[in-house]
Design goal:
Layout lengths: L13 H8 L5 E6 L5 H14 L3 E7 L4 E7 L5 H17 L3 E7 L1 H4 L11 H12 L15
Antiparallel strand pairs: 1-3, 1-4, 2-3
Helix pairs in contact: 2-3
Amino acid sequence: GEVRDLPAATWGVLPMAARRALAEPAAVMRFSVLPARVAEVAERAGATARDAGLRAAFSAHAGVGAIVGALAGPRGAAEAVAAALRDWREAAHAGGGHAILEAAALAVKALMPVWDQPGAALRIMQRIKRQLDPKGILNAGRFVGGM
């Protein structure tokens, strides 16, 4: 892909650039990786999309390791989109980070989790959740780790 420097005014719209690049994205994933690995992760994600016959667009802020990727394909491509997103998540892990599924068609969400694995922080989050919501009624099951 092409890497370009952007004018300062662009930074305000950058978070939506990937999503707007595709008329109807099937999914949007937000990555957080080591800053030195941004280009590598975006290249791998782009190659995954191309190999699957899907279209992808990315916006990134290499200084903080943030990438937003949008993915589009033909109708009925939920399996291919989910497979590509799973590889994107693996690319984020290889880049020292994680990825969350920010937006997706219901057919895609049915095939993969929205949240990445929380790791060791899950126990702490569960304890805080129990203290703040002892009956477990607030958005039950909708957060990371099924909380």
